[in-house]
Amino acid sequence: MGLEKIAEHIEKETDTKVKRIVLEAQVKANSEINAAAKKADEIVKEAAERLNVLSEEKRNIERAKTNVERMNILKTAISDAFKESINNLYKAEDKFSKTKEYDKLLSVLIEEAKKSIGNDANIYLNKDDIKKLERKEKNLKVYDKNIFGIYAESKDGKISMDMSINKIIQSMEEKIARKVIDRLGK
């Protein structure tokens, strides 16, 4: 075989090897491109799903903020109405003190004080209330402050009870507020 044939043979063999290498590289590149495209599709799909989740979370947060704002507005309105009602109760003390119901309430409060402290308890009232009750009750004393209701104290001063309308309203405020809050929670 001559040099030409050897060269031709080497050229053919080299050409075949190059074609095979190029073909293998194309197959490998196509495989890697397909794998990369598949991976990119998965990443895009995951990103879209994550975006949907984040969008839903954002909507939930916005709804929660709106609900909190609504509840704060409602609580403020209820609190203001409650305070106004309590203030109206305090303002109504003077009118209430001139009713028969108030006279009955005084009698009930005095009886409660006697049950708790004893029949010899000192009962303090304002001047006008003493005038109404001095015929029926003993141990009535004028309280140095103008109160509606009674203030009772044992003879030795160790036990006392503030049963003024003001104190009764104050003690009821917390109970009423709790009931309003409980109802709001339902």
TrEMBL record:
Originating organism: Candidatus Parvarchaeum acidophilus ARMAN-5
Keywords carried by this UniProt record: Coiled coil
InterPro entries named in the record: ATPase_E_C
Source organism superkingdom: Archaea
Residue ranges that the Swiss-Prot or TrEMBL entry lists as coiled coil: 37-74
Name of the protein: V-ATPase subunit E
